[in-house]
Amino acid sequence: MKPKLCSRHAIAPPAAHRTAVRAALAAALTLIATLALATTSASASTPDPAVWVGSPVNGTWPNTSGCSGAGYPSDACSLPTVHHIVYSSSFDWGTTVNDWAADDQGVSAGQRVMLYAAPVNSGYSVSAHVDAVGPACASGRVADGGYRVTVGVYAGSTKIGTVTYGHVNPSVSAGQWINRWGTQIGTVGSYNWTSCWQGAHVHLEMANRHNYSCFSNIFVRYPGAQLSETNFQGYLGGSYATAPRRACP
User: Fold this and answer.
1) Is residue 30 within 8 Å of 23, Cβ to Cβ?
2) Distances from the Cα of 177 to the Cα of 51, 108, 183, angstroms
């Protein structure tokens, strides 16, 4: 015969104990909800919207001169797949990033250099700030290549990314808030013939706070073609590239 099993009856906990358990559970659920809301709020407070950036000049897209066999960082090839990045952009965590650079060509001294930037999603409001103005060349001599102007593009107080214009005579000053669409950054300059400057052009760089800025695939599909002000140059913000020096999809 199988042994007879003794049955045991569960003893209900006291009412005070049940109340304490329910209170502890409610507190835990409240804490989880609060943390989730805080995370969502933090994400919402630091948006990273995509910003469309247009050409600063009427000219030509970079051509393929000096590009045969060129690898990054090249000062001979002006295409963004390999062109040297000169200016590192600083962001709020103290590090620097370098995404891509190219030379807009076919310009002449005295020609205007413009800022054109607009959010892809019109629901976002973005603004532009002149983060830095300084010599364009490592020598520090303006006569060797003029100035570079770095414009930060912001959503609220958060910097989305930067656009830098090199070899210009600036008409803006560091620290200025400027109109993101149609502000004249400066003019194309004419300088000493050096390793830094060898003819009129605008050196353009873009860098993202998160992910990577990408460049228009027209840069590499139609090198040397006609370029007009506002022609798409690349995106800041968003998530269009997985590495530096990549074309936008």
Assistant:
1) no
2) 17, 27, 11
Q: Which of 93, 91, 73 is nearest to 82 (CA)?
A: 73
Farthest-apart Cα atoms in the chain, separation: 109
Task: Indicate the pairing of strand 126-135 with strand 177-178.
Answer: antiparallel
A 10 A CB-CB count for 191 gives: 21
Lookup: tokens for 237: 């913000």
Q: Of 172, 95, 98, whose CA–CA distance to 132 is shortest?
A: 172
Q: What is the pLDDT of residues 41-72, one digit of tens each?
A: 333 345 689 999 999 999 999 999 999 999 99
Nearest to 100 by CA among 236, 249, 239: 236
Write the single-letter amino acid at 249: P
Question: In terms of residues, how long is the chain?
Answer: 249
Q: Is the entire prediction scored with pTM above 0.85?
A: no
Can you tell me the distance from the alpha carbon of 85 to that of 99, in angstroms, rounded to the nearest whole number?
8
Say how far apart CA 154 and CA 45 lie, in whole Å.
12
Beta-carbon neighbour count of residue 11 at 10 Å?
6
Measured between alpha carbons, how far is 151 from 204 in angstroms, rounded to an integer?
A: 11
List for the chain the helix, strand, coil content (%; round to 5).
Answer: 15, 35, 50
Q: How many CB atoms lie within 10 A of CB 15?
A: 8
